[in-house]
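Help needed: design a sequence for this.
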């Protein structure tokens, strides 16, 4: 079954849309076509949150409502969703409770950020099960910049208006909205355009494999938190786009076994949080600081690896754990260690017509320790200068196994071979035995100077992160540098 249009719900009605440019953004459609100018354009790159809207989808029998950055989300990605913008919230003159609280607490001055802030809080409000506390609000707002009001009044408004499960008209109409959304899910392959310029959204992996083999020059699109910027900032106009967001089964499955965790490439970063934390608690901080709630709601595990970023946060962690990836081309499946996927800067071992299907992550054995640290200029919404991940095996108080990987230290996320060898034999109770391995880290990499950090700083940080890891494992008291009072928010209800 094929469909030549996308279908979504907007202002309570179904919209069937064909004939749009494959690289049109949702924000442009909202502002230029639907004249929904309440949604603002600030940075155009997912950083400021002025463009935040909420997408609702029927997922596994539940209404899943997430804030997204409309500036980098492509229009075709709203297929199957309900778009909620700032204009949807008030009923005539009656403000929504979030808006009311923003007024009461003086949460807006120039007002440019306000629609985005309100929509982020609206998503929090819809998903709240009980009273929200400051850390949860901070996480919800990490992707929204306000440059004049200051955040305290906004946080006060959030805490007051999200004091319990939502009882607004959106909560009251969940059932009919679910029914309308379920009716959009027809299982048809979407193909809008011509064979030389199209936006396609296959409904099954077989359809994807066939289409991608036919058009190996097409650009695969997952959450668009990278691709969106190529369009809005690098002004690229990719003519053929295949969106993977409608695939199900293995592509979005989370299989949690005793020995391994398997994440489908299409699992969003938000949905990956709990499974990753079940591997090790350090993933809670890594994922809390991965972009923002909006970025995690759209971005996927597969996209964060397939983009080959040398400063991506997941890759070093998963390499240290010994993860493997599964790729598919046509009906052929191929499996390789994640580290082998990254050949050189932005060059991955992916053949024409091949896509990343799932990631298989071994759980560390009981006699092994894992640590991961992200170092960036800001706590929130910042790309790593360095990310270090350490997987250490012990026999008593001696290191007998080490797998160490870094992001931000080379053109690809990569292991520290000399340090791994030098670490064997370390006596946790004799810090004198650590020196060789600590020095080896600085010899394993030749990092670059850039806007995020100098080469010297990166080398020093890498060494010190290893030292911190050893001190933590050895149980040596140290300054408190870990942030422990945050909660990991959940995008979906
Ligand atoms: C504001 C902002 C903050 C960010 N913060 C962070 C951060 O803190 N840490 C971090 O690591 N990253 C960060 N990023 C980068 C980005 O969010 C992640 O890399 C993200 O996970 C990309 O996933 P995606 O699904 O959006 O990929 P997309 O943008 O859809 O795709 C990225 C690339 O992967 C390819 N691709 C996607 N899926 C597949 C597949 N299944 N098979 C083959 N190829 C595929 C695409 O063709 C494209 O080349 C940030 C981005 C933004 C905009
Ligand atoms: S306009 Fe800044 S995040 Fe979209
Ligand atoms: S009120 Fe002016 S930027 Fe927030």
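Sure. Designed sequence:
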């Amino acid at each position: 079954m094929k469909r030549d249009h996308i279908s979504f719900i907007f202002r309570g009605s179904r919209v069937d849309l064909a004939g749009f440019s494959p690289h049109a953004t949702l924000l442009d459609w909202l502002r230029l076509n639907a004249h929904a100018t309440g949604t603002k354009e600030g940075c155009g790159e997912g950083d400021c949150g002025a463009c935040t809207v909420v997408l609702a989808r029927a997922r596994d029998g539940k209404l899943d409502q997430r804030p997204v950055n409309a500036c980098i989300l492509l229009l075709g990605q709203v297929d199957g969703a309900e778009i909620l913008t700032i204009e949807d919230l008030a009923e005539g003159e009656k403000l929504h409770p979030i808006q009311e609280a923003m007024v009461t607490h003086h949460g807006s001055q120039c007002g440019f950020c306000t629609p985005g802030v309100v929509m982020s809080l609206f998503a929090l409000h819809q998903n709240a099960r009980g009273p929200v506390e400051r850390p949860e609000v901070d996480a919800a707002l990490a992707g929204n910049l306000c440059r004049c009001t200051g955040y305290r009044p906004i946080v006060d408004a959030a805490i007051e208006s999200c004091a319990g499960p939502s009882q607004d008209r959106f909560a009251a109409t969940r059932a009919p909205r679910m029914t309308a959304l379920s009716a959009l899910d027809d299982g048809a392959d979407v193909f809008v355009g011509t064979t030389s310029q199209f936006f396609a959204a296959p409904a099954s992996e077989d359809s994807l494999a066939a289409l991608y083999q036919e058009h190996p020059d097409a650009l695969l699109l997952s959450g668009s938190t990278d691709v969106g910027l190529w369009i809005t900032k690098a002004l690229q106009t990719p003519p053929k786009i295949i969106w993977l967001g409608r695939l199900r089964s293995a592509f979005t499955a989370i299989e949690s076994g005793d020995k391994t965790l398997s994440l489908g490439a299409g699992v969003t970063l938000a949905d990956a949080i709990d499974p990753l934390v079940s591997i090790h608690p350090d993933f809670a901080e890594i994922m809390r600081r991965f972009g923002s709630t909006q970025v995690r709601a759209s971005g996927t595990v597969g996209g964060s690896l397939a983009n080959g970023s040398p400063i991506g946060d997941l890759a070093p962690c998963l390499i240290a754990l010994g993860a493997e990836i599964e790729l598919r081309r046509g009906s052929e499946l191929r499996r390789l260690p994640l580290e082998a996927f990254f050949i050189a800067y932005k060059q991955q071992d992916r053949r024409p017509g091949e896509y990343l299907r799932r990631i298989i992550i071994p759980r560390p054995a009981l006699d092994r320790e894992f640590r991961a640290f992200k170092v960036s200029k800001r706590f929130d919404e910042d790309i790593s200068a360095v990310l270090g991940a350490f997987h250490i095996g012990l026999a008593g108080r001696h290191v007998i196994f080490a797998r160490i990987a870094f992001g931000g230290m080379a053109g690809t996320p990569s292991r520290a071979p000399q340090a791994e060898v030098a670490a064997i034999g370390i006596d946790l109770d004799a810090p004198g035995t650590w020196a060789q391995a600590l020095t080896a880290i600085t010899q394993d990499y030749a990092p670059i100077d850039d806007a995020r950090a100098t080469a010297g700083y990166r080398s020093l940080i890498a060494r010190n992160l290893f030292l911190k890891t050893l001190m933590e494992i050895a149980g040596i008291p140290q300054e408190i540098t870990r942030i422990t009072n945050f909660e990991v928010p959940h995008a979906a209800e």
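Residues 45-47, 219-227, 229, 244, 265, 269, 290-291, 295, 298-300, 302-304, 306-307, 309, 312-313, 355-356, 381, 383 surround flavin-adenine dinucleotide (ligand 1) (CB under 6 Å).
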